[in-house]
Amino acid sequence: MIRSSRIKLVHLLLALFAFALVGKAAHVQLFQGRAWAENARRQQTARRDIPAPRGDIRDGVGRILVQSKETVRLEIAPREVRDRQKLRRLLQRAGVSREHLARATNPSVAWVTLPGRWLPTDVAELLTMRGVHPTVIVDRHYEVTPSERRFVGRVDANGTAIDGIERELDSLLKGTPGSAILLRDAKGRRFASPATRGTAPVAGNSVVLTINHALQEITERALSDAVAKLGADGGDIVVLDPHSGAVLAMASRRADPRSTAATALSEPFEPGSTLKPFVAAALLERGRVNPTETVDTYGGQMTLHGRTITDVHKGDRMTLREVIQYSSNVGIVQFASRLSPREQYEALRDFGFGVATGVPYPAEVPGRLPTPARWSKQSPASLAMGYELAVTPLQLAAGYAAFANGGELLAPALVKEIVAPDGKVLYRHQRRVVRRVLSKRAADEMRAMLVDVVAGGTALQADLSAFAVAGKTGTARRNIRGRYVAGQYYATFVGLFPAENPQYVILVKLDSPRGGSYYGGTTAAPVTKAVLEAAIAARDAALDRALLASARTEKPDTTSLTGTGDRATAIVLAGKPERTAPASSAVGSYVPAAGTTSLARPAAPPREDPRRPPPTSAFVFELPSAPERDTTQATGRTVPDVRGLELRDAVRALHEAGFRIQLARGSGGTSPAAGTVARPGSLVRLHVDR
Amino acid sequence: MTRRGWIWLALAGFLVVAVGVIWRRSLGIAESRKLQELVRHRDALRNEQLKLEGEIRAASSRAQLAPHVERRLGMRVPSASQVILLKRPPRQNDSQ
Q1: Which fold has domain A637-688?
Q2: Domain span including residue B22
Q3: What's the whole-number mean pLDDT along residues A510-521?
Q4: A192 interaction partners in chain B (CB closer than 8 Å)
């Protein structure tokens, strides 16, 4: 009996235990199930952030200026390393210093971070070794000239944009980061599984600048040579397309190594005589003067409100044309007195002075143009001579563009296109007229006066002889920290090239040239000439050669074609290109000096008479003719729609349409997009999912 | 078949299925690792390509070549009067 009751008790206990187990299981499954499942998921998976590739920055013809690349930073745990000899050999090959090499192979050291970054392919073998811990870092690589670096800006080590276009357009360039879900095994090892899905990163948009890299290099070289030759503190060159407002080149140089900004946008200066044409234009526009009207210039000296105004080129009477041609201070002050202070102020303000141009650069300054309420008695005369106001080189170039394009002030542009990763064009620069500042008649009259400045005035050294150039020189005393410093000048020249239907507005400014002369006509004007000559001879410097051929004013020097001359001649075919120019273009703009042998194919007949001097100096370069500045000309072609086609067929269709093709990563489509009218021979990026 | 035989058969079936599942998962993980490795390799090669393209661009740039062309080959930029612009007659398909 007792035994039976004990068995029952055991059974009861077992039943209770089983019931408790089932109850707990039910509690875990039914009430705590979600929490435990979440806990398990957290333990078994890991989330990894995938940084979004930052968008490229390209020049106006598609050349990459800035791009992001993956690099690795290496950290070594010497105690985990098994094959130290191999590690030593591979680190030596990777260029690691002896000091770090010794630490990385010393087992008594726990952890070593190697300085520097490597491409994964350069250290591929190292990455497979036990004890080597790589960290992938996305680096920004800048293939830019020093001046381009000034306005392109940069990102810091954390990928934060801190300057220039990188900062201004950061929201467009940076993209959206993604994430990956990795599985973790019992030992904590991570591996990707097709069953776990993350979010793909969205790459940043590409920014296409209006800058022409070839022209940029030409301007930088010319500026560098001039600064070195003249012992100047620095200088700026701006080249602008006067018909679209596109900034084609912007070079800056300063002796002070701390200067890293785009000074053509951030450092205003008193423009001196380069401002006189704006006063003259305002007078012409209001009908207060005609170009042949004269004023008394008092032998080049006059006193006004106790201040003596003098001229370098002295005369008793001058027409307005001569006042501009010889840059007469006395003459322009006399003419400017026909404008009321309000009219003079409004005229200068209308040309864009005192207002930032709005190019995407965070540190652009508006310059300074005081209102008439703040003027002194001397202000109207000072302003007429280009003092008491401050303008940036870009503002001044944009003002001159109005003389070149028939009187419209255009908004300068630094960004040509913004292209999404899939090739869709999000933004394309359109010519934007800020306001009409002059009638076409007044602009043409002004341009004709500027031709005289180069042909027989103060800018003789900018004369190209083969092409008419218009322009104006300026020499202004330099104001440093509120004081005019003796012997310090800004030497400036602003040119329009060619004078008839200009394709460039080019501004050259030198800060304190010291090479014996400080006048704009003898320092800045020759730099302009050097830039223009190099641009004419370059393969692609955003010049329309067909238009240029018709603007020629004298017969070219063809003596060398006969084989009797000792001068070199570059022959440029101006018209539609029959084939694509090779990628490298630098040598194409050079010709041999007298008596040297040629690199290009000679156009002269083979030498038969051994006594005859070798005719080595005639060369033919086939150059693209149309400018890069405007891709929507009437002669353009429509980019075909190649979506859905096989790669081979898409390439063929684009080629047959007359475009050059570059393959790019993306998901179908082209850039420019299908339906866009583009210049034959221009580059079309075909986006393929590789 | 006896009752015990059925039990053995069930156990063997369970074993086969379990081994199959483990084998399939192991294979999947190995393939996934291989795929990851290939992706890494592709990215590395793409970086290498970008680097080499950059080096080509730098080497063929005007800033790099011009000093050599002037100093070593004695070449120079022609003056504007030495450049001849020949007008090419338009081809038929240019007017399209």
Answers
A1: Trypsin Inhibitor V; Chain A (3.30.10)
A2: 3-77
A3: 90
A4: 32, 35-36
Q: How far is B27 from chain A (nearest CA, A)?
A: 12
ipTM: 0.74
Of B32, B76, B83, the CB nearest to A194: B32
| Closest CB to A193 among B32, B44, B69 | B32
Q: Is the pLDDT reported for residue A402 higher than 60?
A: yes
pLDDT value at residue A620: 52
Amino acid in the structure at residue A265: L
Q: What integer is the mean pLDDT of A482-508?
A: 94
Q: Please judge whether B83 and A537 are an interchain contact, meaning their C-beta atoms are less than 8 angstroms apart.
A: yes
Amino acid at A78: P
The alpha carbon dihedral of A619, A620, A621, A625 has a sign of positive
Q: Backbone phi, then psi, for A570, in 5-degree steps?
A: -100, 125
| A57's tokens | 């920055």
The yes/no answer on whether domain A213-547 falls in CATH 1.10.510.10 is no
Looking at the complex, report in whole angstroms how far the Cα of residue B81 sits from the nearest Cα belonging to chain A.
Answer: 5
- Is residue B82 assigned to a domain? no
Whole-number pLDDT of residue A589: 61
Is residue A436 predicted with pLDDT exceeding 80? yes
Considering only CB atoms, B60 lies closest to which of A466, A545, A586, namely A586
Give pLDDT tens digits for A306-338: 899 999 999 899 999 999 999 999 999 999 999
**pLDDT tens digit string along B5-64?**
999 999 999 999 999 999 998 998 888 888 888 988 888 888 888 889 888 888 888 888
Cα-Cα-Cα-Cα dihedral sign, residues A215, A221, A223, A226: negative
- The dotted CATH code for A49-205 is 3.90.1310.10
Cα of A549 to nearest chain B Cα, Å: 6
HSE value, Cβ hemisphere, 13 Å, CA-based, for A121: 15
Residues in chain B closer than 8 A to A625 (CB atoms): 88
Pairs across A and B, CB distance < 8 A: 183
Helix (H) or strand (E) holding A678: strand A677-678
Q: What residue spans define the domains of chain A? A: 2-47, 49-205, 213-547, 637-688
Smallest Cβ distance to B85: which of A530, A549, A599? Answer: A549
